[in-house]
Amino acid sequence: MDQLVTLVKSLQKSEKRYFVLSTGLQKGDKKYLELFHLIDELEHPTEKDFENFFDNKTHFYHHKKYLYQQLVDCLRNYHAQDIGSKCHAFLEELEILNQRLLYNTLYKRIKVAKKFGIQYEQFSFLVQLCQYEQAYTMFQKNKGEDIINIERVSQQYLVQAQNLSAIQLLEKELKVLLKQWRFANTKEQKNLVNQLKQNELLQNPQLLLSQRAFIIYLECKIAIAKLLREDEDLKKYAKQSIQYFEQNPFLIKVDVEMYISKIVSLLTWKLQNAEFDSLPPLFDKIAKYQGISIRVDVFLFLKVTPFQLYYNDKMENDEKMKCFLDTTEKKFKKLQEYIDDQGLVVNYSNFALYHHKYGNFKKTQYFIALALEKCSFKVRRDIFSFMSLFRVLVLYDQKKYENLVEITENIYRKLYRKKMNFELELMVLHFFKKTPFNILSKRELIQNFLCFKDKIKSKLKNKRTGFFYYINIESWINDKIEELEGTG
Q1: pLDDT of amino acid 434
Q2: pLDDT at residue 28, as a whole number
Q3: Which portions of the chain are predicted below pLDDT 70?
Q4: What domain count does the chain have?
């Protein structure tokens, strides 16, 4: 049942409408369509919800299987104009014509397919078309010279395909490093990035044999700029990429996610340099791609939503921000089953931070708990450490002083066992573990907070890493002192 429910819940509105209209053309029993509507209406349907819907289990399993197949067939037809789908459809059609020796029709369809392949730079597809072209030529007069020419053209397409694969492989290597490190911090990491930077395709873009290869070359340059923190290069290549995409719109159709990622790179640069006024037009550029597919929606949510949250937060309109946060959370609930653990952890952390900032401590603790469930020593250990300490701050904000000693002791053991304890983090844990908040007077508490702030400040020295990258502890301490002084 799970795979059917997941498939139904992943459908866009336009896909659902197409499915309902398509099934409306069919005659006979449409119990499967009623099952579709029932799954669509229920938030978390289970097999128990369908016990009374069918006369017996045999009917249920039959309609479930039939509905799944109908949905797959319908989606195949709906997305038949996608570039990859269209290439497959062409090849299936050509194989049928070739098997039936319908060579005149075969030749006409090869010309149409070839035009499509050249337009969208589908080189592997073009190589396969050359094989069918050779099959047609074998039955023509004076075929020898033509076959040699076709083979030469096939080799050209093959070289372009290999050239594209080579730059794509380099891009993947850089993306893996970006995901692992975020920035190249150590000497060894920087040496590895600089070694990849010396690749001949990055040094000599003239060697690139297609527009698709050139746009991936720019993506590699952006990845290197991010890893080495070269902000001006990041801006330069991001702007160049967006312009190149828009001058060659077929590239967007080939890979809309890459186009969006280029805009995200420019968003990154503008946020780093506090250019908030220029962000709305970039958000507008991206908005029109919402709803293309569940894959694109997930990509947009993971890449763009953090920037939108940050932007709305910086606009200092609390009501608008709370409304946007609520909308974002609802969207996240619809998409979360399609998001990997890495994306879930980051989103749980973001929700925890923003709910805390806007005073919703119950939701803050809820998202902290979810983040800690997903984190491990291997999966975002930095967030595991950060969320653990953040939980302590939230407990203080909730005035749950009696829990602080036990919680800080448990956190210390966990971080120590994972070898994730550092001097500054230990100072935070030590302060909350040793300070008897429910016994000290307000004056004594203020004094304790001031001493704690001085210790942190002397050790921190503007090096904000780990927990201190996400939380401005000095600002938090100042807020607690102001609260204590305000209550007389």
Answers
A1: 87
A2: 61
A3: 1, 25-29, 51-52, 55, 80, 140-145, 377-379, 417-421, 462-464, 487-488
A4: 2
The pTM assigned to this predicted structure is 0.77
Residue-wise pLDDT for 425-467, tens only, equals 888 888 998 889 888 899 999 999 999 999 888 887 766 677 8
Structural contact between residues 430 and 461, judged by C-beta atoms closer than 8 angstroms: no
For residue 380, the enclosing domain spans 362-488
> Residue 90 has which token pair?
């062409």
In a domain, residue 455? The reply is: yes
270: amino acid identity, one letter:
K
The angle, 0 to 180 degrees and rounded to 10, between the axes of the packed helices 256-272 and 294-314 is 10
- Of 62, 78, 94, which residue sits at a domain end? 78
CA atoms within 13 A on the CB side of 461: 2
Report d(CA 389, CA 400) in Å as an integer.
Answer: 15
pLDDT of residue 138: 82
Is residue 280 in a domain? no
User: Residue 12 falls within a domain, yes or no?
Assistant: yes
Write out pLDDT tens, residues 141-152. 556 668 889 999
Whether 285 maps to a domain, the answer reads: no
